[in-house]
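Objective 1.3, modelling of assemblies. Example input:
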Amino acid sequence: MKNKDILRITLIACLLGLSAGLHAADDSVKKAGQLLDKHYYESAALALRSASAGGEPTPVVALMLARAYARNAELYRSLQRSSLTIGNMYLQKLSAQTGRDRSLFVPLYYGEYLIQSGKLRDGAAQLHRFIEQKDSAPTYRDIAQAILAVTQKAAPSAAQSSDPLVRSQLAAAISLSSARRAEAATQTDQALAELIKTNPILPVRAVTNAIGVYARSGQAEKAFALLGAADIGRPSYEEAISSSKVLRFYDAALFGNLAELDQAEAERLLQRVRSDAKYKAVASYFLVELYLNNEQFGKAVALLPELNAATDLPAAYRDRLAVMQAALDVRSGKAPHGNAEFSGLGQKYAQDPALLAEVLSACVHFKASCPGVTASARTLAAANQGERYRSLHFAVGEQYATIGKNDLALLEMETARDKSNKNRIDANDPMLLVRLADIYFAGKSFSESLEIYFEMSREFPAVRQLQETGQGVYSTEYRSAGDAKIF
Amino acid sequence: MSKIRTKVFLMLVAMFSVSIGCSATLADTEAAGKKGLSYGEYGRPTTLDPITSNDMISMRITELLFNGLVGINNKQQIVPELAESWEQSADGLQYTFHLRKDVKWHPKAGQEAQPFTADDVIFTYNIMMHPRTVTSLKVRYDFISEVKKLDQNTVRFTLKRPIMNALPKFTFKIIPEFGPSNAAFLGRDDPFVQNPIGTGPYRYKETTANGEVVLEANPDYFKGAPKISRFVAKPFADQNIMNQALMYGSIDMSVLVNPRNVPEIQGDKRLRLQSYSALSYQFFGYNTRNPLLADKRVRKAFTLAINRNEMLNSFFNNQGTVISGPFAPGSWAYNLDVKPLPFDAAEAEKLLVQAGFKKGSDGIMVKDGKRLVLTLKVPIAQESESVKRVVLAFKTYLRRVGAEINVEFLEWQSWKEAVFANHDFDIMFASWVFDDSADISSLFHSGEIGAWRNNFGGYSNPEIDSLLVEAKNTLDHEKRRTIYRKLHERLADESPYTYLWTLTNYAAYDRKVRAVQIHPYKFFSYADTWYIGEGGDDKGADAPAKATK
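Predicted structure (tokens):
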């Protein structure tokens, strides 16, 4: 369920007899629709928020906004996976360095990356290493303690420190407890107010923490205001070991917090639209998709009965709903039933590249067993290329990647890529570009990855961390003689 | 309809043949046989040996003809080539290579093939480093203090100091001691540079009157005979004609697709597009020996005076990225903090005035009685329609701020002599391509000023020299990154070039060519495992081959 969001919403709205809302849309909304269609999710959301400034958006605008946030959330989750892989590689290399010029801060950031990757014990060990260094700065030692508290499932108090940066970290830790989110938000407000008194440019770490806290406490507007004023492409910390050796560190939690923020806002908007009877089916449909993509299967399952009963959902979306139903069955303890549903859908759409791609993509992402679907998709993809088949080649490539056949995955994904604009997100699904970057990076074709990130960072400034850490890995991994030639 | 198109195409080929004196005919391809591969190049190679050549066209051919002591596979691993094993001393100062005993040089006509030995390695190193040898390689190997033959199949290199990534440096190609007519140094007049003898998967056969370089498979190749019987490099001065030749099956592969032709090729089921060489960029380089260009404010003014985004958009369909300094954005060395200078003609004029220029009555800037009139030299191999537009736009933009640019298109060899040997130019247009190391020392270090060296502009700056040396000497990757960031920043400000953009480089080939893997820099490194398939679908067969080198 990828592209053509504006077209989809328009189609659904028209079929539901709601086109008046779209016709009434002003230029900003139309522009936002175009941006959304070209995968400029950040810019689309910004335009739509501006169009609704001072009031709640109309249902159609809210739907578009929700779609922008949902797409962004999905993309940020994907970037988070890439960032953790590359960040861990980079920091592991730095961690191995010894001697006079070694970094003090590597254990702190490596610990954070490991914890974000779910390696709590290894992450805690790195944080302890950082705390035990006699030269570690007290502020960052306290920050490490606050992060450690999370791994120990302890309940830190935000009032424990007088340092506002430390308090912002403590607030991020306590916001993970649903009962203390309001407290965390208040502490964050105070910490930011204090930090801004000494420097109008907030530390990136404080911004990252605040985004997570505000996302969890339902205060998305504060987070968006913060993001509007901050440069999240900056490093979290720069360590000048000497005049000719400066290390840059980035926050492991940044992409995850951005995803959480956009997911929460998409959910809020869709829930609000859902309260309007005219738009209920559309909003519910997108909510199921939103929950499914974030692996909130219980919430998605709860919405299915009323969505199945809705009479005003267009037929094309019933097909996609069937795909989602199969995925939910697979992930809700009814795998044999779900697998059979996938198999049936694969047969039904064996000649429909878009729907077959969605079926295969869902099979892959939700770990269903779909041999028949895979075979149909490969056959159809092998015989066809061109724009109509791009999503199919992408899905077939994804399937190859999950079974470790990266060479074949690359072939398929390259066929899915618009070669005339190979790194541009307006011509390519950003999810495709991120996956290509992942596979190229894993295969040590680093420059191919960095080119993708370079273009992507124009729309998504947080991608800078992937560029910088990717450069760090590349600089140690390449093997070449040092040649330069005239072309 | 197709007959008409074929006639038009043949007419175009005929016109092309007359205009530059070389051809790519259908008959030639048929003669090449089914198992041969002919590929289109955008010019003729200047030399065919790995020491004197410094352009990509030559390098692609030498990659098929020669081997290094070691190779680098597609997993960035160092693998054996002419050396079957090696040892590194604990202090990182000595590298001992044990050579294969089963390698023979390509035979000279009517003669027995001679064995490859340690003497060839010593000879190659010595001739490469000789002061009179025409090469840009010396700077890369000045870290070696001595090379010694231990026995017929063992050589030891002693380094002046441990260096980062030393082993990959030994990928330099080995030439035979009996090859060059002059055993002391290698010049471009030595017959060897046009009649090379190597150890590689292909042997040099001939260069035809049309400028086609024909290579034949080496049946005695030490890694096994290659599967494609011969490679024919066909020069095309116009990328559009080369594209047509590919579309009509006159060639099997094009090493560089014009960005405008990408959609057409992507839509053709018979062909496959593959991107490569992300680490390249186009630029205008300045001859700082000219007093008018010695002042960085003048060079910077030229960059400010041109609208690079507009040019990229108009002439290359926006298929690239405007850059801010001497590295490509896909490189580990690119400083992301440095942004490209904006298009600002007013600021450009201001800088020229600050540099002492005054506008004359004809609108041309004048300083100390000298008018700001400069010659821009462009190689004819670059004379694609897009490049013509770029240089003409450059001329127009600069005219607006008071600089008169006279554009001269020169044949490739003449252009290289003018720029690299005689330094007879004010401004030149070209592209650099780098391997992964992003080593710019040969481009900007003052020690690299001289005939056939890469610092053709005579750029000299002690601060840059010092940073380049510091980067070269460190063994700390992060320290080197920091220094490279500084270099990017300083060289952006110094503007020895107007850095333009990095373009997406695509090769295109017929799907009948299978198992194709293209090395992002050297191109044909894995070509010995390619093969020509007949019919059927190449899915899977075309997957990148496993590491073979």
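Residues 48 and 54 of chain A are 12 Å apart (CA to CA).
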